[in-house]
Write a structure and sequence with these properties.
Layout: H1 2-12, E1 14-16, E2 22-26, E3 31-33, E4 36-38, E5 46-52, E6 56-63, E7 71-75, E8 79-81, E9 90-91, E10 94-96, E11 105-113, E12 119-130, H2 139-191
Parallel strand pairs: 2-12
Antiparallel strand pairs: 1-4, 3-10, 4-9, 5-6, 5-11, 6-7, 8-10, 11-12
GO molecular function: sodium channel regulator activity; transmembrane transporter binding
Domain Ig-like: 2-126
Biased composition (Polar residues): 181-191
């Protein structure tokens, strides 16, 4: 059906910035802004564009076909293209050089593929700029996790031991009860003691 075909084509083009959509960069450093795209039916004269905060165009490139590398259409002087589309991945990543605090914000990687009836797709990555990187000390956290984990382990072990001990005690007591009942019944019956089966017989008539 034409409608289903249109949906399939629309979903064929996908753009991704990786597993996380946040990047942190040190002030005055260079930062990589990753982006790749996939298409099920290939591409021809594909156009990709990078935007800053949705409106400011910072890089635009065009790819004639899978056999050729992208060519730059327009670019911000501080943006360098570092991707490649002739290899396994259709990589259209860029590097932002000499990062400033004013560069913090939203970066959108937009792709348009004329071969898919001008199908379009985009992905967004958020950049945070800091004065210095702060190393996270996980020592305390690891100690706490280790102690808590150890206590939980000991508690589980204690509960298992308790259950086993109680089970053994119960079995031992049940065994003793069976022995007492068995020996008591035999003695009473054989010796004619009070409460025995022999005692319960009616006395013979004279």
């Amino acid at each position: 059906l034409p409608g289903l075909q249109a949906v399939a084509i629309a979903l064929a083009l996908e753009v991704s910035v990786g597993k996380t959509n946040t990047v942190m960069a040190l002030n005055n450093s260079n930062v990589l802004l990753p982006c790749t795209f996939t298409t099920c039916i290939g591409f021809l004269d594909l156009v990709f564009t990078w935007y800053f905060n949705s409106t400011e165009l910072i890089y635009q490139g065009k790819i004639k076909s899978k056999a050729s590398e992208p060519t730059m259409v327009t670019s911000n002087p501080r943006v360098k293209f570092v991707g490649s589309t002739t290899g396994k991945d259709n990589n259209i990543s860029i590097v932002l050089t000499n990062v400033e605090f004013s560069d913090a914000g939203k970066y959108t990687c937009h792709v348009k593929n004329p071969k898919e009836k001008n199908a379009q797709h985009n992905a967004t990555i958020f950049l945070t700029v800091v004065q210095k990187m702060v190393e996270t000390d996980n020592t305390v956290t690891l100690i706490i996790v280790g102690v808590v984990g150890g206590l939980i382990g000991l508690l589980i072990l204690f509960m298992l031991i308790k259950r086993v001990v109680l089970f053994i005690i119960k079995k031992t007591q049940d065994g003793k009860k069976e022995c007492l009942v068995s020996s008591s019944g035999n003695d009473n019956t054989e010796n004619g003691l009070a409460g025995s089966k022999a005692e319960q017989k009616a006395p013979p008539k004279a």
